[in-house]
Specification:
about 350 residues; mainly alpha; Aspartate Aminotransferase, domain 2; 16 helices; globular
Length: about 350
């Protein structure tokens, strides 16, 4: 209670009555645009509101979203090309995702109990491992990109027994806004006034020679690895030269790993490619759609949600799946950027 009272007192724009009056959930859809922008500016991120105003987005009120589209209060349909910076890989409110969420909530699950083993994260971890390349057997659940980066940095340090604690990163990069992620972020506007690890080396993005020099100059053997974006987004959609892509030049990160470790990873990758080739070569077991066959064969009283993940996983393993050629896709992206 002390913290809440102090926070309310620190906001001069609040009156005593406004501080006591809480907004109810069913009142939120009817809030006017000026109120929403005012609360964003006062309580969330004023700079973001200013950016919205520069682009004219403050004059648009979004009332719903479905698939790749968002809909405004005046009836317009807009194609969402931002997609929350790639987080909405299934689009807005995908029917199968919504159905699964409603099915889950309808069971009144006791899923926030740390002292008991819940079946749901266990099943999700098992499915992710089944879909991952060979040699990857553990899952780390997290809530954001910066948390994933923090976990990756700690995992790399643990692999060296804590003896290496530094990382190489690129100019113009953005990996998150927590302390560790800011230490490998090459944009000063996010790093200013935040204490971080100052002695981690930064190299120009796409400069393989500079990256090699950073590792070669590590006399104390403190560098645990390098963290790089395949394409820099925050810096302006910067695509690295083809020669710096590890896939194109067959390089390995000079992190001091033994040759046996490298050979083991290559064998794992070869097994994954061989397994994928066998899956692509095997024909479907029937002419019917696997998902429909799975649904038709479901026994009565089965309370699994539509499109049960385990059934889809078994079906997907029987059906050849197209694979994206990243090299051709990258060339296409570079060509479009050059024309633009």
């Amino acid at each position: 209670m002390t913290t809440v009272a102090a926070a309310a007192k620190a906001s001069p724009a609040r009156t005593a009555g406004a501080a006591r009056r809480l907004v109810k959930l069913d009142e939120v859809p009817s809030l006017d645009r000026e109120t929403v922008l005012g609360w964003h500016r006062e309580h969330l991120n004023g700079a973001l509101v200013t950016l919205m105003q520069l682009g004219g987005y403050d004059a648009v009120r979004i009332v719903r979203a479905s698939g790749p589209y968002v809909y405004t209060d005046d009836g317009r349909r807009l194609l969402d090309l931002v997609s929350s910076y790639g987080a909405l890989n299934h689009g807005h409110n995908h029917p199968r995702v919504v159905a699964a969420a409603r099915w889950f909530d309808g069971r009144e699950p006791a899923d926030l109990l740390k002292e008991f083993a819940s079946p749901f994260p266990a099943a999700l971890a098992r499915n992710l491992v089944a879909l991952a390349p060979a040699g990857l057997g553990s899952v780390f659940f997290c809530n954001s990109g910066t948390e994933a980066v923090e976990g990756a940095l700690k995992l790399a340090q643990r692999s060296f027994g804590g003896e290496r604690d530094r990382f190489v990163y690129a100019e113009g990069s953005l990996h998150g806004k927590t302390a560790g992620s800011l230490s490998v972020t090459g944009r000063e506007k996010y790093r200013a006034h935040v204490r971080r690890f100052e002695d981690w080396p930064m190299v120009p993005f796409g400069d393989a020679a500079a990256l090699a020099r950073a590792f070669a100059g590590d006399r104390e053997k403190r560098i645990a690895g390098a963290i790089l974006e395949p394409i820099q987004g925050e810096a302006g959609v910067v695509v690295p030269p083809a020669a710096t892509s590890p896939r194109r030049r067959g390089s390995r990160a000079p992190t001091g790993r033994s040759s046996s470790w490298t050979r083991s990873r290559r064998r794992s990758a070869a097994r994954a490619r061989s397994s994928a080739a066998r899956r692509r070569a095997s024909p479907p077991t029937s002419s019917a759609s696997p998902s429909r066959s799975a649904a038709a064969s479901r026994p009565s009283g089965d309370d699994r949600p539509p499109g049960d993940p385990a059934a889809r996983l078994r079906a997907d393993q029987r059906v050849p799946r197209p694979h994206l050629d990243l090299r051709r896709a990258g060339a296409g992206v570079r060509g479009r950027i050059a024309r633009w």
